[in-house]
Amino acid sequence: MVNLAKMVPADDLIPDDLLRRCLDHVLRTQGSRALTYAPLEGLPSLRELIVADLARQGVPAHADDLLITTGSQQGLDLVARVLLDPGDVALMELPSYVGAISAFRNVGASMVGVRQETDGIDLDHLEHTVVRLRAEGRRVKMLYLVPNFQNPTGLLISLPKRTAVLEWADRHDVLIVEDDPYRDIYFPDVSTEADTRPIVADDRSGRVVYLSSFSKTLAPGFRVGWVSAPPAVAAKLELSKQAEDLCTGGLDQRIVYEACRRGLLESHLPRLRAHYQQKRDTMVAAIAREMPDQVSWIAPRGGFFLWVALSHGATSAEVMPLAQARGVIFVDGHAFFVDGTGQEFMRLSFSAPSPTRIDEGIARLASAVKEAGSYARSAT
Amino acid sequence: MVNLAKMVPADDLIPDDLLRRCLDHVLRTQGSRALTYAPLEGLPSLRELIVADLARQGVPAHADDLLITTGSQQGLDLVARVLLDPGDVALMELPSYVGAISAFRNVGASMVGVRQETDGIDLDHLEHTVVRLRAEGRRVKMLYLVPNFQNPTGLLISLPKRTAVLEWADRHDVLIVEDDPYRDIYFPDVSTEADTRPIVADDRSGRVVYLSSFSKTLAPGFRVGWVSAPPAVAAKLELSKQAEDLCTGGLDQRIVYEACRRGLLESHLPRLRAHYQQKRDTMVAAIAREMPDQVSWIAPRGGFFLWVALSHGATSAEVMPLAQARGVIFVDGHAFFVDGTGQEFMRLSFSAPSPTRIDEGIARLASAVKEAGSYARSAT
Question: Which of A265, A292, A308 is the last residue of a domain?
């Protein structure tokens, strides 16, 4: 089975030897101290290191308002619990990350979709939506965004749009929840670090809650994410975390800290970028070769995903069993739409499989797509 | 400052050298695989090992219905989210563990207290309470219990009472949430393993949700707990965990598994028991020496805590600043009562400080207690 469904970094890109040395150092120098409860808000050293790193990128943050979370999924869950009461509206891109959708649904939030364009969220539709909802008396609390190489579309929000979104949020007094785990994984052939400047960097009014993690760059097994928020929100997130899991694993935090302190993460990033860029090329070439007339796509400028639209009338759910029978799996794009649409999309991940497996997987998928297309034609 | 407030194992009892060897083995044999996402429900090997261990103790459990959690605090949080709707009643002992109180409060549950006797929960009061609440039309969903060496009282529920509680729950169709992190830490001078037999061991009707963790025995820095539940509940807990943190740290789980597989935990337990038993003796002797007329207590038969009642009319909140001024801190017992009572109780932890520090801490505390008593007398 070729797995194009997994949301994971490639195993062979996890620097396990180097991380093992970090771990060794931690246990040799700190002994049993490294194995006791970590502080609720996270290790001070790690929080300060993240803040310093953010400062270098132009993002103002304070260690006091930065909370280490058990992966960024916990950050999303805490944000939902603290910011959303039942019935509150969270605006979500169409499509949007399923982990956020689950967390927001869990607290009884009402999610309303906003369309995307190729350079990110559709500003006209965003404006129209908030005006309409407010006129209906709905409480619009937040806009959830993945600005860089979004899961599932791989899209990047353009810099002018980021500025415009922030102005929009100020004008309508809406919080922005900016979820940014893929930022470091831009592809140098078509992107630069400047293209990925987070929205929070220009937040002057304290309305952006910013989340990220080390899962996509260092190793996903470490459940170490973080959330930086305006002080009043940060204090509530911390309280909510206490009842949720007391603290994030101390050993994981110490290894991550040590890896960053030594510059290991920094020096690892160019390799990651080159690796995933090449795999994107492999997948795009395979799709262009195998099924150019059946699907359309936009080659991503970073991240892990290729978002593919079926153009022949079949749905992703119809392709799925045919694909599985041929030995390839992917994720049905439908799950990422809070408005129930998106039946024609497939999310294909190129991060984990090898180039050879990507070629094989796309060949199998193309055969399934074509068969589904022939059924769709005969039905109409 | 002598810290008698901390809910932590003694640092010098964390077998960091042995755990380091386990870790080394894990990374050497599994490499980067050990650093990828763990399965949502936890590592199969660890779940099977826990189930086998439970079976040896007479507890029927199935790996499919056992979920690894990010510490047992997450287990409590998931239980709250899955089992309690706003307004549902959770019956709680007076006093009860604050971590559970926070988790249940977070979901809008209504907590109603049930008195304790020296051998555990007061069965008459339990019966009376459920009958009264049901007559009022309240939805009584669960009874939360810490059967062994409860935090904060250190009490053990007697075996006949465990049987009676289970019968009571069957009769009234109430779930029991049995939180059991201290079970392994019985003191051999006054307890045996048989005294700690979990309620779930005799559950024939699938109404006990059973939680524990490795934090009190192996090391708290590993955020590895677990919850075993009836199948329908287990499936919901798993779904809820997915939105909360995707998975528990894989490296932590692998080290814990390796430590258990090698018998390290098993061989470590007698040392833990002897150590904490001796510290309990130290603290009890110090209190009997320093303030026999001002306080009363029951020497615990296991666990980390000594629960002390002020008998001279002062409250724990009045003692607190006087104690801090003398260089000792403890936890105000009031926080553990869901009915707003308990002002006269102090929770003293003997787990972390050395015997010398315990002696010093109790001497300081006695001075504070006596001063608070003299104010209380002059006020009446």
Answer: A265
**Do B292 and B183 reside in the same domain of the chain?**
no
Which chain A positions have a beta carbon within 8 Å of B23's beta carbon? 23, 27
Chain B positions in Cβ-Cβ contact with residue A223 (cut-off 8 Å)? 70, 223, 245-249
Query: Total structural domains in chain B?
Result: 2
Work out the minimum CA distance from B21 to partner chain A, whole angstroms.
Answer: 10
pLDDT digits (tens, 9 = 90+) for B105-160: 999 999 999 999 999 999 999 999 999 999 999 999 999 999 999 999 999 999 99
Contact flag A242-B70 (C-beta cutoff 8 Å): no
Question: Does A99 contact B243 at a Cβ distance shorter than 8 Å?
Answer: yes
The answer to whether the CB atoms of A35 and B14 lie below 8 A apart is yes
Tell me which residue range forms the domain holding A320.
2-12+269-379
DSSP letter at A76? H
B32 contacts on A by Cβ (under 8 Å): 11-12, 14, 16, 219
CATH of the domain at A343: 3.90.1150.10
Check whether residue A295 and residue A185 sit in a common domain: no
| Number of Cβ atoms within 10 Å of the Cβ of B217 | 22
Among B354, B304, B341, smallest CA distance to B154 is for B304
A72 and A179 in one domain?
Answer: yes
3-state secondary structure of B155: coil
Closest partner residue to B220 (CB to CB) among A36, A105, A245 is: A36
pLDDT per position as a tens digit, B62-97: 999 999 999 999 999 999 999 999 999 999 999 999
Domain holding B182: CATH number?
Answer: 3.40.640.10
What pTM value is reported for the model?
Answer: 0.93
Which chain A positions have a beta carbon within 8 Å of B78's beta carbon? none
Q: Give me the phi and psi of A211, to 5 degrees please.
A: -120, 145
Question: What single string gives the DSSP state of each residue in B341-373?
Answer: --TTEEEEE-SSS-HHHHHHHHHHHHHHHHHHH
Find all residues with CB under 8 Å of B281, minimum gap 6, and list them: none
How far apart, in whole angstroms, are the C-alpha atoms of residue B128 and residue A264? 63
Which one of A230, A245, A265 terminates a domain? A265
Residue of A32, A33, A221 lying closest to B249 (CB–CB): A221
Low-confidence ranges of chain B (pLDDT < 70): 380
If DSSP states are collapsed to H, E and C, what string results for B276-335?
A: HHHHHHHHHHHHHHHCCCCEEECCCCECCEEEEEECCCCCHHHHHHHHHHCCEECEEHHH
